[in-house]
Structure formats: structure tokens, C-alpha cells
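TICKET: design request
STATUS: open
ATTACHED STRUCTURE:
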């Protein structure tokens, strides 16, 4: 009999079949995949330093909306309970409710114990299992002995702070601490300067111009971001039968066009054919999605747009200026708001391989990415792990941070598409068809079954032929940027 005080001190390990750290979209998809390989009496322990499931959605700004139609942001093939039309872009609260629902569904398949408020500290892998050590905020320790460990750190997005400014006459806020629809922002009529032209910037400008028609809203867009045109990628109603290219086919097309050096050319094609850009001059692309209606609302309500980077707001001689990286200065009305929308993806984590040499630990994080989005990584890597194939299938891993920091930002999305296409081919050879049928994250699911089946047939027919090209592209990326991009084991 174990003394309960010993267990609470972490001296006596808790025992489970699978330990999953981080139940965001990646960790929950890992849980779904694991549940396919476990029986009802087997045990999964979920470790999470936040107090609930949902990952970044727990903390992100309150007016965030999903990029993709809600049904495509799910866990395995678990359908949403929401009574909205299929193109509805779920709110933060709806996303969090769906995550809870998914966890409930999975509780019916396998024994799940949550350890919220615990941080993963270390793991020690041996021939017969992994010993995981976690800590709580108040200094307690928890030891877990697991057959397999999945570290689903994913993008590990954390809250943004307001930008630091020298001026005492402006109000600098972060969307995570200031709901721009309420409070002092609503009470004031002062201009708003949105800093950052990515997804958060677009959400923020859209919210501001909708909530406060006629108010001055300016955008400092940096290099600007272009997006996938949602109306084209996800046509509504009967048009799904004949309009819009299947997203997988677009990614395959982009990956075929990209050779590791020609991102300028591929981007020009992509922007014209599939993209949308409110600034007209954007050069960044991180697979975000925007509709024509959102873009029209944004452009019709926006004041000035600066393709430049914010440096500071400074007071001088009774006036206040915004200072930009180019050296330009713009006069700003006292009392104006500066909203930090400069992005969340920082990638501070050190490199870890996507699978440990011993084969019991899988890590989902962007320094060893194997796909374009973490949900897919959690799903497929767990299937490989639980089938005993994680160390034998020679997936390519790509260091996103190395690429982004090493001057490869314009090539990023096309490199990631090449990576996803290459690895999907290997996964299709290694995993049974049911795994792919159960993957509800697949954007092609937007389209009717006959179109999807035709798409799958095309992929099957071309995947082997395209593989050599994708591999050469990824090898070129490795050499050109001097980054980690390749297999852990040689085929
Ligand atoms: C503003 C914003 C909007 C986005 N919108 C979309 C969208 O509409 N569609 C889309 O597909 N993608 C979107 N993304 C990308 C998005 O980040 C992912 O889709 C996804 O939700 C990330 O999930 P994740 O599981 O990878 O990471 P997270 O949600 O960050 O989950 C990782 C979890 O691991 C936990 N964790 C990490 N380290 C430890 C540790 N040591 N101990 C314990 N727990 C730990 C974290 O607390 C966290 O809960 C958006 C990103 C941002 C920033």
C-alpha cells in the first residue's frame, strides 16, 4: 500500500501507458490517435501547466476567430456540436467548448487522468519506459512512469505584452490584456495604431472598424502578410461541387513549383491565384486565411497603412511622433492607442528530434517540424509511435526557427508545403488507410466525397514521382540556409 503523502511528494510514480504533455490541438490529436491503439482500461495521463485543455486558445485575445471553417479544426474525426452553418468561423469560446467536448468523447474510449497546473520538467527514457518528472507552481513534484511519452509543446504560444514606448501621451496595449471592443477603448474616440499586419493585426483592425465606424485606425504592417483567399479555398453551398481547388492539390502544386531557390516566383503565382492582401505589397505568408468580405471591411475602414516597422512613440516639443524603422516619423494625436499585434510565434524552445533514439518519446515542436500544422504532427506522429514505426520511417524534419531567422521567411510556407507533401507520401506508405480517413483536420474535407476521392487518387498516382523532387527541394533548403532539414534515419 502506497502512503498517499509519498505520492503527493512525487516519490512514488504514477503509472500509465501514455503520458501526453500539452493538450492543445496537437496534444488532443495525439490523444485521439493514441486512443485508437489502447483499450478502455489502459491509462493516459495529460500534463498541462495551464488549468484546462485548449492550449493557446485559453489565453489568446477574446475576439480571435478561427481562420478555417470550424468543422476542420478538430480532434481526429470528432464532429462539432455547434448549431451553425458549416462556414462559420468559431470564436475562442466555441473552440474551447469543442476541445472540452472532444476530451469527453475520448474519455469514453480510454482512461484519462488530467494533471492541470503541472509543468513538464524532464524525461528519462530506458528500455522499458519513460520516467517523467513534473513540477507544480507551489514546488511539488510529480513523477510519472509511462510506456510512451508525447511532448505536444506545439507552437507553445504565450500572451503578448504591450509594446514599450517612451511617450507618456499614448496608451500602449496588447490584445491579450485589452479587449478592444470594451472598456477604455470604447469610451475613447482617439485614433488607434495597430502594429503588425498578420492575422492578429487583421482581426484587430476588422474588429475596430466594425465596432467604431469612422474612427481613425492606422496600420503599421511591417513587411505585410498575404493570406489564402477563403472564398476561393472554401467556396460555400453548391459551389463546393465545382469551384475552388482542393487545398491538398494546391499545396502539391506549390510544392512542385518550388525548387528551394525560387520562392519569389512561386509567391507571385500563389498570390495571384490563391492569395489576398489588404496592403497590396505584402511579402510574408504563414498559411493564414482571410476572406474577400473581411479584406473589404478592413480596407474600407482603414486610415493610413505604413509598410514599415514600429520602433517607438516619442514626445517632443509638445507633440508626439511614431518612429519607424526606416527613420520616418509620423505625428500621432495625444491619447492615441498603440496595439501590439506583432505576432506570437517566437520559437524559443531548444531543438529536440521529433522522436527519441529509443523510440518511446515523440516531440511536437517547430524546431523539428514534420508537417505544416501541429495538429497534424500530433496525429500522425502518435500513430507512428503507437505502431512502433516512429524510428523507422525516414520522415524529414525541418527547423522552422533556423529557416525564419536565417533569412528564409519568404521561402517558409513553400518549404513547409514541400515538407508536408514529402512526409505525407511516406506516411501513406506506412500507415493504414483508416488513419487518413479519421483525420478531420484535412482541409480537403470541405469538399464533397467524389471530389475528395478524385484528389486522393491523384495524390496516390503522383506521390512517388513527386517525392524525389520534394526531397531535392528540402535538401536545397538545408544547404542554402545551413539549417537542420532532413531525416533522422537514412532510408
Ligand atoms: C492568434 C493566433 C490565432 C491562430 N488561429 C489559428 C486558426 O484559426 N487555425 C489554425 O489552424 N491555427 C491557428 N493558429 C495556429 C495555432 O497556434 C495552432 O493551430 C494551435 O492551436 C496551436 O496548438 P498547439 O497544440 O500546437 O500549441 P498550444 O495550443 O500552444 O498548446 C501547447 C500546450 O503545451 C503546454 N505546455 C508547453 N510546455 C509545457 C510544459 N513544459 N509543461 C506543461 N505544459 C506545457 C502549453 O501550456 C500549451 O497548453 C493561431 C495562432 C495564433 C497565435
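STATUS: resolved
RESOLUTION: sequence designed for all positions
ATTACHED SEQUENCE:
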Amino acid at each position: 500500500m502506497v502512503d498517499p503523502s509519498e505520492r503527493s511528494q512525487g516519490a512514488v510514480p504514477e503509472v500509465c501507458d501514455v503520458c501526453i504533455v500539452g493538450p492543445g490541438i496537437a496534444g488532443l490529436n495525439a490523444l485521439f490517435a493514441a486512443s485508437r491503439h489502447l483499450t478502455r482500461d489502459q491509462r493516459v495521463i495529460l500534463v498541462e501547466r495551464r488549468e484546462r485543455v485548449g492550449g493557446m486558445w485559453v489565453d489568446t485575445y477574446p475576439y480571435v476567430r478561427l481562420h478555417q471553417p470550424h468543422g476542420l479544426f478538430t480532434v481526429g474525426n470528432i464532429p462539432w456540436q455547434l448549431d451553425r452553418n458549416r462556414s462559420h468561423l468559431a470564436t475562442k469560446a466555441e473552440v474551447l467548448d469543442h476541445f472540452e467536448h472532444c476530451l469527453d468523447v475520448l474519455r469514453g474510449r480510454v482512461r484519462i487522468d488530467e494533471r492541470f497546473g503541472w509543468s513538464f520538467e524532464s524525461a528519462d527514457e530506458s528500455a522499458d519506459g519513460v520516467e517523467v518528472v513534473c513540477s507544480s507552481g507551489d514546488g511539488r513534484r510529480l513523477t510519472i512512469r509511462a510506456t510512451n511519452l508525447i511532448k505536444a509543446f506545439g507552437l507553445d504560444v504565450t500572451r503578448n505584452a504591450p509594446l514599450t514606448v517612451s511617450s507618456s501621451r499614448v496608451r500602449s496595449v496588447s490584445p491579450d490584456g485589452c479587449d478592444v471592443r470594451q472598456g477604455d477603448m470604447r469610451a475613447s474616440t482617439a485614433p488607434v495604431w495597430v502594429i503588425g499586419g498578420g492575422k492578429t493585426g487583421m482581426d484587430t483592425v476588422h474588429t475596430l472598424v466594425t465596432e467604431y465606424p469612422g474612427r481613425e485606425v492606422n496600420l503599421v504592417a511591417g513587411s505585410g502578410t498575404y493570406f489564402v483567399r477563403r472564398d476561393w479555398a472554401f467556396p460555400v453551398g453548391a459551389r463546393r461541387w465545382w469551384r475552388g481547388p482542393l487545398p491538398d492539390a494546391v499545396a502539391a502544386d506549390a510544392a512542385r513549383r518550388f525548387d528551394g531557390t525560387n520562392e519569389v516566383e512561386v509567391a507571385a503565382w500563389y498570390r495571384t491565384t490563391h492569395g489576398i492582401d489588404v496592403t497590396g505589397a505584402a511579402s510574408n505568408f504563414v498559411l493564414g486565411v482571410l476572406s474577400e468580405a473581411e479584406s473589404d471591411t478592413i480596407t474600407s475602414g482603414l486610415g493610413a497603412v505604413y509598410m514599415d516597422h514600429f520602433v517607438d512613440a516619442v514626445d517632443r516639443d509638445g507633440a508626439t511622433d511614431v518612429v519607424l524603422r526606416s527613420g520616418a516619423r509620423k505625428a500621432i494625436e495625444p491619447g492615441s492607442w498603440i496595439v501590439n499585434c506583432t505576432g506570437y510565434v517566437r520559437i524559443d524552445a531548444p531543438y529536440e528530434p521529433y522522436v527519441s533514439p529509443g523510440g518511446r518519446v515523440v516531440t511536437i515542436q517547430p524546431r523539428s517540424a514534420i508537417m505544416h500544422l501541429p495538429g497534424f504532427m500530433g496525429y500522425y506522429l502518435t500513430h507512428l509511435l503507437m505502431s512502433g514505426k516512429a524510428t523507422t520511417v525516414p520522415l524529414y524534419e525541418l527547423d522552422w526557427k533556423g529557416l525564419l531567422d536565417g533569412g528564409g521567411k519568404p521561402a517558409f510556407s513553400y518549404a513547409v508545403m514541400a515538407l508536408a507533401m514529402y512526409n505525407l507520401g511516406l506516411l501513406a506508405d506506412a500507415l493504414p488507410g483508416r488513419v487518413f480517413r479519421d483525420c478531420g483536420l484535412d482541409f480537403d474535407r470541405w469538399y464533397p466525397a467524389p471530389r475528395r476521392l478524385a484528389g486522393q487518387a491523384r495524390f496516390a498516382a503522383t506521390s512517388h514521382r513527386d517525392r524525389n523532387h520534394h526531397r531535392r527541394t528540402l535538401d536545397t533548403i538545408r544547404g542554402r540556409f545551413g539549417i537542420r532539414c532532413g531525416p533522422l534515419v537514412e532510408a
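CLOSING REMARK: The radius of gyration is 23 Å. The chain has a mean pLDDT of 94.
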